[in-house]
Specification:
The complex is a heterodimer. Chain A is mostly helical. Chain A is built from 21 helices and 2 strands. Chain B is globular, with a radius of gyration of 21 Å. The chains are: A mainly alpha, B mainly alpha.
């Protein structure tokens, strides 16, 4: 097949076409720019649907691979190698799904330098999709580092008052981790002779002590991205300052690059080390769950609350992944999607009210339900989904994770799952507290403030509802009938778990 | 003189003869100021074309004092392109700054010929000759904006420290001769191998040579002159000097240490390790404190010398050295392209009397001149080492060599200092894109062309890097 028209190449690089078109639209024609970006991202989503149609859910291996020699000189063995399997298919779909939604959410929120905004947004999509599809470590690193640049600008140009600080902090924090990973990638390239991930996994045979170092170097990059406690301090700043669409993509997709990195690289490449450190990772995950929840409860800023809730929710994902059994990892992967949907929707909802009131302080809100019933209803559904109410998506993932962690041989103690369960209760506390403060009780002072400006708080308009409905559909779908989603993930996960167990068993003797 | 002798120095001869003719042309043309630069560019283009045809060949001339191999032709091409970029950057800049004098281009050609001689030198005496031939025109060029005090100070400082460094080199050469009875690199190697050399004396001599060229390429602690000279010299000269003189210095270091002195590896490796680490640290950390873009780029060039120096640290490991030289050459190329691009942006914003050189003068560039700002974005990312840019691929190559040679901690220092460097390169982006201002630029065609070509080159060459790698790897095969 023609490498350019290969579905994986297309889904990754199609947004570049939109970038190219945008360059030729005059800066004043803002609507044309918005439509160009939206249509580009919708077509990209369409291509990803084609990908899903071609995808064989029963096959645990990489599919639709494209592997062309790229830099093969002087002992280098670097390829343009893309592939998709059960570990990544849903994340690719999440990326192409959330991008048009985010673009739609900026329709009235972004008025300044629209063209640049759309340009960076589409470039970001290229980077993110590339991260999930790359099967060559060099190529992966290129996409991984590349995502920093557009996100840096999205926060730095269109962000809140403290945006420059947040943008630089985001960039430097993430880069610090990636550079250590770069050295580990180089080590693998030199001593294993290839950068291709499947080849590296097949080759194996890295001594246990070196595995540990390499594991830690990769983990440095991914743990910062997730972010795992105690490396999370960039996240609240970045989220609070980022524009709504930036927050949605940051929480929805960029953080998943970290958790995905653990499943795709850390666990299969360094299985012995993964088994060895599993209890420690679980410990950090549980601390993150409890800490994130507790700090969320203490926030006065809605966006900060959601940001810290991400630390807590991604703790669950990490706990599931390092259970190193099928339930845990499947739950972890599904929970990545769930978190992308719920938290993405939460940020969208917060952004929608912020556009009207220009404040995110709880204290001034209250009694919104009467004024904005549609907004209130949608918010309630999303809050309940984020809490993990049975029947909605969050429950399915968290339940599988807790089940996996409870019986995990690698973690070795049910106590971790026990403490993590407390996090579920805490999530209910801080999310319902937020909901109550905003929507129930007496009318908050913000209503008066907005009236003084000559207009009143309006309920969601059609565009905003259209933005949210696709997410809500998925929230219910995954909550009520998760089987097709698990069916996509399961074969690849089973293969991964089997490989880890046999590698760890070999290391024992 | 045989044909081989003649061929081996042909690019240099063309340039020197051409420069001498240009001196005369310049005397007789007062009105047509465009003629000298045009002719100079033609001369360089001819040399460039000839250097490209030379690649793949290997021969020695003048009883082995001069060699032409892949290493030479790779660097010759780099030097010719640097010369062309130097002319393109200077043409309108000199007019704007009132420096429009034909000698400028003549001096530039002489300096390029010195650099080319350096790349071909296989004898310590020739190394010294080349050093002087490339440096003396640069001393004059640094002071070209006289009677501006900054420029005069730059010239004097550069001259004094350059002469000082030259002294170190000569003394080192003398000791090496005393120790081995020869100045030819091949014979020095042979004397060491047969055991007739006085190793202590040779060690002292080579250490002195290291110090002398350490000044030239500006590694810490021999970097003190760099910020003042880079800041005081006219920007077009600085751009040329930052690439050409550095590349020539590294050419000498690589040739002398890899080809003649690998036996001193054990003794010199700790010293070089420390030099590389110090240079990366000091260059990057001090750059953070700069508010003037020229000074910031000066410290950044020091830092990059540190990265390239990492490749030199592996000079004595037979298995790694060829790849290390290739990595250094590739990085020099990446640095050259990015550096010329960045300086072209600096020149676009620079005004008379040293105005327009503060970082704050870049505020609002992203809004007002999106194309220029986008180009600067590419250069800053390349300096930082973010893909998809040449700087990233260059660093990837370098770090690989460092790890392969077993210097894990040096590699860690390298990535750590890259992180530090991200801070000040990002600051340029912050100012360009996130602050408001009303920058004024001048954009003559040649300057635009330079910025555009280097920006596109920085990205595109990083994606299709294979031929470049191959070229850089071939460059060194013939050296051994």
């Amino acid at each position: 097949m023609n490498p350019v028209l290969h579905p994986l190449t297309l889904v990754t690089f199609f947004p570049l076409l939109g970038v190219f078109v945008l360059l030729f639209i005059q800066p004043e024609r803002k609507n044309a720019q918005r439509w160009t970006a939206l249509i580009t991202s919708l077509i990209t989503f369409g291509i990803s649907m084609w990908l899903l149609a071609e995808f064989n859910a029963k096959d645990p291996d990489l599919q639709m691979e494209i592997n062309l020699p790229w830099i093969q000189v002087a002992g280098w063995n670097i390829s343009y190698y893309l592939g998709v399997d059960g570990l990544s298919i849903l994340l690719v779909l999440l990326t192409t799904f959330l991008t048009p939604i985010s673009i739609l959410s900026t329709w009235t929120a972004i008025e300044d330098r629209v063209r640049d905004f759309m340009l960076f947004f589409l470039l970001l999509e290229v980077g993110m999709t590339g991260v999930f599809l790359a099967q060559d470590l060099f190529l992966f690193y290129v996409f991984w580092e590349f995502t920093l640049v557009p996100m840096y600008f999205l926060i730095g140009i269109w962000g809140g008052p403290n945006r420059m600080y947040a943008a630089i902090k985001f960039f430097l924090y993430t880069m610090a981790g990636s550079l250590l990973m770069l050295l580990a990638i180089l080590w693998l390239g030199i001593y294993q002779g290839t950068f291709s991930v499947p080849e590296l996994i097949a080759k194996g045979g890295i001594p246990a002590d070196i595995q540990l170092w390499l594991f830690l170097a990769f983990a440095a990059a991914f743990a910062i991205k997730v972010p795992m406690w105690p490396l999370h301090s960039w996240l609240p700043d970045a989220h609070v300052e980022a524009p709504t669409a930036g927050s949605v993509i940051l929480a929805g997709v960029l953080l998943k690059m970290g958790t995905y990195g653990f499943v795709r690289f850390n666990i299969p490449l360094f299985p012995v080390a993964a088994v060895k450190v599993a209890p420690w990772m679980a410990l950090l995950a549980v601390i993150g769950i409890i800490y994130g929840a507790a700090v969320s409860y203490a926030q006065k800023d809605i966006k900060k609350l959601v940001a810290y809730s991400s630390v807590s929710h991604l703790g669950f994902v990490m706990l599931g992944l390092f259970a190193l059994n099928p339930q845990g990892i499947q739950g972890g992967i599904l929970q990545m999607i769930n978190h992308g949907l719920s938290t993405g929707a939460l940020f969208l909802l917060v952004g929608m009210i912020y556009e009207q009131t220009h404040t995110r302080d709880f204290a001034v809100y209250g009694g919104l339900w009467k004024l904005t019933p549609i907004y209130g209803t949608l918010m309630l559904i999303v809050v309940l989904s984020s809490m993990g109410l049975p029947g909605l998506n969050g429950f399915v993932g968290e339940f599988a994770i807790l089940l996996g962690a409870f019986g995990s041989a690698a973690i070795g103690s049910p106590w971790y799952a026990g403490f993590a369960a407390i996090g579920v209760i805490l999530a209910a506390v801080y999310l319902l507290y937020m909901f109550q403060k905003m929507f129930l009780g007496p009318e908050g002072s913000v209503v008066e403030e907005v009236k003084k400006l000559g207009h009143s708080i309006k309920d969601l308009n059609k565009r905003e509802i259209v933005t949210l409905v696709p997410i809500l559909v998925l929230i219910f779908w995954i909550g009520l009938y998760p089987k097709p989603f698990f069916a996509l993930i399961a074969p690849a996960v089973d293969k991964l778990v089997a490989a880890v167990q046999s590698a760890a068993a070999v290391a024992m003797y | 003189m045989t044909t081989t002798d003649f061929l081996s120095i042909l690019p240099i001869t063309i340039l020197v003869a051409w420069a001498s003719i240009l001196l005369l042309v310049d005397v007789f043309t007062n009105k047509q100021k465009w003629l000298t630069p045009l002719l100079a560019a033609i001369g360089l283009t001819v040399t460039l074309a000839f250097s490209i045809t030379q690649s793949g060949n290997a021969y020695a001339g003048f009883n082995g004092m001069v060699v032409v191999d892949g290493f030479t032709s790779f660097l010759n091409v780099l030097f010719a392109i640097s010369g062309l970029a130097g002319i393109a950057l200077a043409y309108d800049y000199n007019k704007r700054m009132g420096l429009e004098r034909g000698e400028y281009y003549v001096l530039l050609l002489f300096s390029v010929s010195g650099m080319m001689l350096m790349a071909a030198a296989a004898d310590l005496i020739v190394v010294f000759l080349a050093l002087e031939l490339l440096s003396i025109p640069l001393y004059v060029l640094a002071g070209f904006a006289r009677p501006k005090l900054d420029s005069e100070e730059a010239a004097l400082k550069y001259f004094l420290l350059g002469a000082f460094a030259g002294g170190f080199v000569v003394y080192g050469v003398a000791l090496a001769f005393g120790a081995t009875g020869s100045t030819a690199l091949g014979e020095i190697m042979a004397a060491v191998n047969t055991g007739t050399a006085d190793m202590t004396l040779l060690l002292i001599g080579s250490a002195l040579i290291l110090v002398g060229f350490g000044f030239k390429v500006a590694v810490v602690p021999f970097q003190m002159w760099t910020p003042d000279v880079y800041h005081g010299a006219p920007s077009a000269v600085t751009a040329f000097m930052a690439v050409g003189a550095k590349a020539a210095g590294f050419a000498a270091l690589l040739r002398v240490f890899v080809a003649a002195l690998p036996t001193l590896y054990e003794e010199l490796v700790p010293v070089m390790w420390v030099l590389a680490a110090l240079t990366m640290f000091v260059g990057n950390i001090v750059a953070i404190a700069q508010s003037n873009i020229k000074r910031m780029l000066a410290y950044s060039s020091i830092a990059h010398a540190g990265y390239i120096f990492m490749a030199l640290v592996a000079f004595g490991q037979q298995a790694v050295a060829p790849d290390a030289v290739a990595a250094a050459l590739f990085y020099l190329l990446a640095y050259a392209v990015t550096n010329f691009g960045a300086w072209s942006v600096v020149i676009a914003l620079e005004k008379a009397e040293g105005k327009g050189l503060q970082l704050d003068d870049y505020a609002g560039l992203g809004r007002k001149y999106p194309a220029l700002a986008a180009a600067m974005l590419v250069f800053m990312l390349s300096f930082t080492g973010i893909p998809p840019t040449l700087g990233f691929v260059g660093k990837f190559f370098l770090f690989r060599i460092v790890l392969e040679a077993g210097f894990v901690w040096l590699a860690i220092i390298g990535v750590l200092t890259s992180l530090i460097s991200a801070y000040y390169y990002l600051r340029v982006l912050v100012i360009m894109y996130m602050r408001d201002g009303e920058p004024e630029i001048s954009s003559p065609v040649l300057l635009k062309l330079t910025t555009g070509l280097t920006a596109v080159g920085t990205v595109v060459l990083s994606i299709v890097a294979v031929p470049l790698f191959q070229w850089a790897s071939q460059a060194v095969m013939k050296l051994f």
